[in-house]
Amino acid sequence: MAISYVGVGALSQAATSITPAYPGGTAAGQLAALQVVSGHPDDSVPSTPSGWTLAGSFSGGGGTFGSGTGPRRLTYFTRVLLGSDATPTTTLPTGTGSVIAGRILAFSRSAGTGWRWASTFGEDTSSGTSFSAACSQALTWAANDFQLIGYALPVSTASLTSEAITATGITFGSVTERADDQITSGNAGRLGAATCTVSSGSGTQAPTVTATLAASSIGVAGVLRLREASAAISATAQTVSPPRNLVSVTGMLAENIVAATVYRLVGTARTAVRAASEVNVTSQDALLRVDAEQPFGTAVSYTAELEDANGVVWTVTTASSITSTVTADVISDAIRGVGASVRIASWPEKRRDRDATQFNVGGRIVVVSRPRSSPTATVLVRTETAEAGDALQDVLDEATEGVVLIRKQTTMVGVDSYLVVLSDSEDRNWYDAVRRWSLDTVETEPWPDVLEAAGFTLQDISDNYTSLQDIADDNATLLALALRDFGV
User: Fold this and answer.
1) Are residues 336 and 388 in the same domain?
2) What angle is formed at CA 79 by the lines to CA 76 and CA 83, rounded to 5 degrees?
3) Last residue of a domain, one of 228, 255, 281
4) Environment class of residue 54 by beta-carbon count within 10 Å: exposed (0-12), middle (13-18) or buried (19+)?
5) CA triplet 239, 240, 241: central angle to 5 degrees?
6) Cα 34 → chain centroid
7) DSSP-assigned states of every residue in 67-87
8) What is the reported pLDDT for 145?
9) Cβ proximity of 71 and 39 under 8 Å
């Protein structure tokens, strides 16, 4: 696995607006980085081009903005190329002496699931030819990380040599200069760019960027650290009754992911998967959660928001969707991993009450009331086999916190809901296994999010294995065991 430099486009410079060109050799899947040097009397940040992402921006160097003097700003924008990409435009407001210049650099990767980046910046406020900028934010480093090193100087004649980067405990390979441009627009400036790769070492450190200048100058420098993404999310349908989906996020350790949130997607609607909100995954490579509350008869997919150690949030999404198919309606307890097949026979009404008191004040009725209650209803269902009837007994007997989930065979708004069953009556036939149930219910909230949905039970393991060695022989890792489909 490695990131390679592809090329750099021509310099574009002006007073307020530039449209830099892509370098030759770009292709879909590559990463483009637009490095911009700017200056403005109001220290404005250049606008983000359409379809690009602001990866970082910093202004510094000290002094008052003027011709060849004062602060300059260094900004990075990024874009994963699609193969037919419009050239970007970035602008500044009109201002006396304003200046903006930029180049697009492109990079390719040989492995990974995508791109990850982070940036940090520093300044040198002492005018001289030995430039040194200690960056303020520590980045995570690992072997094969690729660095785009940028410089933004106010002195246009301060050409750069001996560009370098250092960080405690990190060994960087040789640095190669990619651009060293004199900017003559507006109050002028200098754009420098160089690249290198981490040879060895890992850790979280703030780097220092240095260079030798041909003329004395102050200025700023920055590092855009690039990395091949390793994190991915997948979902597997389990052949159990009621069906559930096992969702796993893997490859987080290499990206220094510290927090993860997993969502179920139905169309554009997004719902957090149980016990998967802002989970601390520091030093953890995988996260597994069971979704046993998905709607039936409709396609669902999953996405995860992953926050890395630098505070950047990345998104990964499953490559395909899952449609859970059942042959009946279902009443279940996701926390215990149990459920029963039923037929909803009648649900004629939902009743809502409001506690209120009336006062006759001078012939005028004044009502003081509280919020309307949750719906209550008598739900009639039937079970059609002895096994289904016993399963419903089990669900109702041991319902976690008294809550059950009822779902239609094909999801239906107003039916799929969480209920507390206050009382139930069971009517049996002497001539068949059909049972008719009358459930007095109150709609309620789902189980607390701290409660995870059950994947497999100890009984599942007991039914399938006779010894710990059998488990080890059949499952290379604990994740493999957690993902096993015991319904097959």
Assistant:
1) yes
2) 145
3) 228
4) middle
5) 130
6) 23
7) TTBS-EEEEEEEEE--SS-PP
8) 97
9) yes
Does residue 234 fall inside a structural domain?
no
- The mean of the pLDDT values for the chain is 94
Radius of gyration of the chain (CA): 31
- Asked whether residue 235 is assigned to any structural domain, the reply reads no
Name 471's Cβ contacts closer than 8 Å, sequence gap at least 6.
Answer: 461, 465, 481
**How many domains does one find in the chain?**
4
Co-location of 183 and 56 in the same domain: yes
Name, in order, each residue with C-beta under 8 angstroms of 48's C-beta and a sequence gap of 6 or more: 54, 77, 90
**Residue 108 and residue 23 share a domain:** yes
Residue with tokens 């607006």: 17
The CA–CA distances, whole Å, from 248 to 265, 317, 483 equal: 15, 11, 8
For 409-454, write each residue's pLDDT tens digit: 999 989 999 999 999 999 998 889 999 999 999 999 999 999 998 8
pLDDT, tens digit (0-9, with 9 covering 90-100), for 358-369? 898 988 998 898
Q: Are 89 and 18 in contact (CB under 8 A)?
A: yes
Say yes or no: 438 and 476 in one domain. Answer: no
Is the domain of 466 the same as that of 407?
A: no
Q: In 392-453, which ranges are E strands? A: 403-407, 417-428, 435-443
Q: What number is the average pLDDT over the span 193-205?
A: 97
Measured between alpha carbons, how far is 223 from 191 in angstroms, rounded to an integer?
Answer: 14
Cβ-contact 242, 331 below 8 angstroms: no
Contact 166, 178 (CB under 8 A): no
The answer to whether position 366 is within a domain reads yes
Whether the predicted pLDDT of 462 surpasses 70: no
Distance CA 35, CA 25 (A): 18
Are residue 481 and residue 411 in the same domain, yes or no? no
Q: State the residue range of the domain holding 297.
A: 247-325
Residue 297 amino acid letter: G
Are 135 and 222 in contact by the 8 Å Cβ rule? The answer is yes
